[in-house]
Amino acid sequence: MRMTQEDGDLDSLVRKRIRALRVAQGWSLDELAGRAKLSPSSLSRIENGQRRLALDQLVTLARALDTSLDQLVETDTDDVIVSPMIDSGHATLRWPIRAEPGMTVMRQRLTNPPPDTTASLRAHSGREWLVVLSGTAVLLLGNRRFRVETNQAAEFPTMLPHALGTAGGPCEILGIFDREARRGHHADRKG
Question: Higher confidence at residue 5 or residue 118?
Answer without folding.
Answer: 118
